[in-house]
């Protein structure tokens, strides 16, 4: 499959939080794209949550939503993140603590790379939360402490009102997450499939493909890619296929967490869902390939150097196939 993409580190800035009342102000999306009404930055008196901090909130609420957990889980997770990192994805902490929830690889939370992935970190936090007997009836601060086992147990309850206001404010103003600038209707998935299938036989070109069609990419791919033979890499084909409906991120790894994407079980895929492969199916950071479902059991893809865009069968037990597909909406 395509070459493994290098990780992209996202910088986040310090949250200044000291207010009792939160007003939501619309300016721009967490991904940097604009939209009508410009929804996205929450305002605290005297300060603002940045796009990056909003992104952390969106990830938390999005993962909770995908798991169909009650809003209480969002409040517990957000108040924990406020305490542990001020809604930042920290690359340092006490001893080996890392990430949004300051999880420690030495304590079994995952590898350093995994706990630095906010999607993975949120999932691990929720795994520990829902494993608690009676967590839904616990005071949120108690539940957070039971997960984190902090030496300062009172800190979480202190942030509960703020977390509740953030969750309520964001949810009430921007609706479904993870992307507040995504209108609530589906993309034209059949059209995306047809656009991808129309490229059958086009060369695989590393870095190739835009919303407008095939390109040569970075020029490093061997024939059939060449100066006069443009083509696509795996994520470039997705970028082109969905272009009339939604603009996807450029890389397969980013497309797995694309704004407007919903994760669905592999057994529930429909035409137009995206399938992903990684070197470690537990780690979205290891994703290196993406393909588009034509029908369940059939896909279209730009596979690797030296090959062309193809349609082929796939199996649910395919090595490296990530445990969920992504269905786009916009």
From TrEMBL:
Annotated GO biological process: proteolysis
Membrane-traversing stretches: none
Domain NlpC/P60: 186-330
Keywords: Hydrolase, Protease, Thiol protease
Gene Ontology molecular function, alphabetical: cysteine-type peptidase activity
Pfam families with a match to the protein in the record: NLPC_P60
UniProt-listed SUPFAM superfamilies: Cysteine proteinases
Family: Belongs to the peptidase C40 family.
Annotated PANTHER family: NLP_P60 DOMAIN-CONTAINING PROTEIN-RELATED (PTHR47359:SF3), PEPTIDOGLYCAN DL-ENDOPEPTIDASE CWLO (PTHR47359)
Protein name as catalogued: NlpC/P60 family protein
Species of the source: Amycolatopsis australiensis
Lineage: Bacteria, Bacillati, Actinomycetota, Actinomycetes, Pseudonocardiales
């Amino acid at each position: 499959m395509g070459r493994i993409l290098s990780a992209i580190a996202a910088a986040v800035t310090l949250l200044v939080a000291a207010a009792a009342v939160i007003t939501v102000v619309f300016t721009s999306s967490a991904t940097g794209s604009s939209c009508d009404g410009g929804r996205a930055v929450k305002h605290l008196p005297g300060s603002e949550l940045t796009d990056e901090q909003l992104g952390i909130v969106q990830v938390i609420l999005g993962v909770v939503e995908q798991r169909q957990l009650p809003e209480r889980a969002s409040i517990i997770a957000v108040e924990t993140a406020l305490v542990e990192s001020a809604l930042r994805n920290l690359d340092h902490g006490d001893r080996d603590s890392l990430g949004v929830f300051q999880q420690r690889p030495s304590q079994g939370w995952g590898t350093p790379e995994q706990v630095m992935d906010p999607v993975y970190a949120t999932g691990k936090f929720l795994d520990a939360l829902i494993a608690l007997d009676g967590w839904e009836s616990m005071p949120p601060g108690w539940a957070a402490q039971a997960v984190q086992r902090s030496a300062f147990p009172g800190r979480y309850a202190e942030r509960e009102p703020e977390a509740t206001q953030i969750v309520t404010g964001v949810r009430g103003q921007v609706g479904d997450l993870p992307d507040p600038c995504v209108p609530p209707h589906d993309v034209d998935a059949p059209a995306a499939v047809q656009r991808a299938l129309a490229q059958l036989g086009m060369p695989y070109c590393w870095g190739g493909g835009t919303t407008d069609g095939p390109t040569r990419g970075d020029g490093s791919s061997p024939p059939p890619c060449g100066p006069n033979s443009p083509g696509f890499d795996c994520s470039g084909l997705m970028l082109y296929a969905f272009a009339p409906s939604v603009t996807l991120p450029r890389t397969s790894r980013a497309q797995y967490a694309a704004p407007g994407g919903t994760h669905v079980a592999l057994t529930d895929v429909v035409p137009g869902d995206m399938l992903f492969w990684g070197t470690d199916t537990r780690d979205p950071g290891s994703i290196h390939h993406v393909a588009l479902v034509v029908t369940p059991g059939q896909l279209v893809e730009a596979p690797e150097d030296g090959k062309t865009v193809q349609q082929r069968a796939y199996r649910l037990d395919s090595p490296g196939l990530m445990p969920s597909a992504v269905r786009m909406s916009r």
